[in-house]
UniProtKB/TrEMBL annotation:
Protein name: Endonuclease domain-containing protein
Gene3D superfamilies recorded: VSR Endonuclease (3.40.960.10)
Biased composition (Basic and acidic residues): 21-40
Taxonomic classification: Bacteria, Pseudomonadati, Pseudomonadota, Alphaproteobacteria, Hyphomicrobiales
Domain of life: Bacteria
Native source organism of the sequence: Borborobacter arsenicus
Assigned keywords, A-Z: Endonuclease, Hydrolase, Nuclease
Residue ranges of the region described as Disordered: 1-40
Amino acid sequence: MAQDKGSSPPRSGGEVARAQPETERGALEQPSRRSSENIERARQLRQGDNMAEAMLWNELKAKGLGGYKFVRQMPIGPYFADFACRKARLVVELDGSQHADSEYDRRRDALMRTEGFSVLRFWSSDVVKQTPSVCETILAVLDGRLNEDTVAPDLRFILARTPETTEGGV
């Protein structure tokens, strides 16, 4: 005679198995999407916000700018983007005077561009003094109103190269 195992449902998956932590189900551990080193570095960078970053984050967080979701200090390759909208593939960088005519920033921009991200750079002082104008420029990129490489004294926009833009010769 078969031994009665009680009234518990069979453990062949379903809700009982899902209710248990993965390690108890015997599932193989999958590697984290991001390394613990990147997570820790991003935390450090967020805690070291300067005033301009804090002011812009107040505008971007919780989908506050046109309903677009932004994150802070997102790793892209070996770099960390100040702010990024994953869906629109847009990175927003704030630069202090040490970034003036920086070859390092050009390399960063080139890598982010090859990863499919457009890069929009502002001077930190402009964010502090002209936050509404900065936000309007970000929205212009997100809405497609600013859609070509632009280099000006107060901003730099590098459009990501996609199959659509390279076919058109942009």
